Each structure stands twice: as C-alpha cells, then as structure tokens.
Amino acid sequence: MKKLLIIGAGGQIPRFLIPMLKEQTDLELTLFGRQAKELSYPDVIKISGNAGNLSDLTNVMQGQDAIYMNFDNKKITNIVIEAMHLTGIKRIIQAGVLSVYGEVAEPFAQWNSRMMGGNIAKERGNEVLEESDLDYTYMRMTWLYNGERRDYVASPKGEKFLGAQITRRAISQYVIDNLTGKRNDIKESIGLWEPGSEGKSKPAWY
Predict the structure, then answer these.
(1) Rounded (10°) angle between helices 54-61 and 74-87
(2) Tens digit of each residue's pLDDT (9 = 90 or more) over 137-182
(3) Where do the structural domains in the chain lie, given as residue ranges?
(4) First-to-last C-alpha distance (Å) of the chain
(5) Superfamily grouping for domain 3-193
(6) What is the pLDDT of residues 97-129, one digit of tens each?
(7) Secondary structure E strands in 16-90
(8) Cβ burial 105-118 (10 Å sphere, 16+ → b, else e)
C-alpha cells in the first residue's frame, strides 16, 4: 500500500492522524474535503471537493490504495462505495459511532442513550458497508477527547460495548495499525475504547 485518501480531512481526528501517519509510515497522503486546499499540512496532496458528489469522489480516488473516511453518513457512504467500485479500490476504514447494534452496556448505556437521543444509532455507514464486497473496517468509537494516550481496546461485533472514552490519538493509532498490517480487521465492525474506562457511567470530563 502506497497511497491513502483521507475523506473529511478537515475534521478533528485528522489533526492527529495526519502527523502520526507522517511519523510512522511512508504513505502518500491525499486530503479531500470541502476546504481541503486551505489546510496547513505540509508535503501532502490537497484537493477540495464534495464527498456527496460522485464525480468529485471518482476523480480524487484515481490511483489510491485505501481510504480513511472521517465521518459517518449512510447516504454519503453509499456514494463513496459506488465511487470505490468505479475506481477499483477495496480498502476503507470509516470513523463511526457506538450503539449501532444497541450493544452499549450499563451503566454507560443510560447516559449514552440520553446524550445520543435514543438507544440505537440508525442510518449509519455500517449498514451499507456490511452489505458491500469491500474490505471495510467500521470503527464504533466511544466518546472522544484530545489526550496523549494511544492505547485502545478493540472489541469485535457481538460483544458488549463497555468503555466510556478514548483519545483521538488512540483512534489514529488504530487506523495506522490497520494500514500497516499490525492489525487486519477486514470486514469488521470494531468497538474502540480506552483501557480502564470500562464500567464508568460517563466520560471523565462530563
């Protein structure tokens, strides 16, 4: 793998992911988003465009080996999948949400449900990725913060979701571990949380 496309590159996770990718890999990075050309990262390709536009996506995907998608929207995920089929890309890692299966355990489940406005998150990318022929990894991320820790628990689909928080650096490390072969969570929906945050009723900062 040589080239990685980051869709939604102006988001908060890429602020950590992009520098960490440059530290730990030799991947050629292409940043894509509505205002990608205005981003300040050096030594990367920046292309502004609309992730909901099939033509914009197929143009930016040409020659890429893998995709990191920094947001979770079922409608746009469908368009991304279509563009991947048109350009022959198989590998995608998507930043998603917890509770897409109603899998969050108590005591955290009650607080999380109240904050999210319902028990189960619907109309998410996992619904179409799981039906696709792609080599996807869907990240069910717990509540995020900007700490220094890079460790994570990776919980497969079917297990209870236990952890209340995780750093954006840890999410970035998980993405890198999958891109570099340290992990190989292909066709998997993975719950991600910080070790030690199990059994908490809410994130520490709330």
Answers:
(1) 50
(2) 999 999 999 999 999 999 999 999 999 999 999 999 999 999 999 9
(3) 3-193
(4) 40
(5) NAD(P)-binding Rossmann-like Domain (3.40.50.720)
(6) 999 999 999 999 999 999 988 767 889 999 999
(7) 28-33, 45-48, 66-69
(8) eeebbebbbeeeee
Task: Please give the structure tokens belonging to residue 159.
Answer: 């297990």
Counts for the chain of helices (H) and strands (E), in that order: 6, 10
pLDDT of residue 116: 86
Q: How long is the chain?
A: 206
pLDDT at residue 119, as a whole number: 66
- 188: its two tokens: 């998997």
Residue 136, C-beta contacts closer than 8 angstroms, at least 6 positions apart: 91, 92, 93, 94, 129, 130, 186, 187, 188
Instruction: Give the pTM.
Output: 0.97
Place of tokens 């979701």: 161
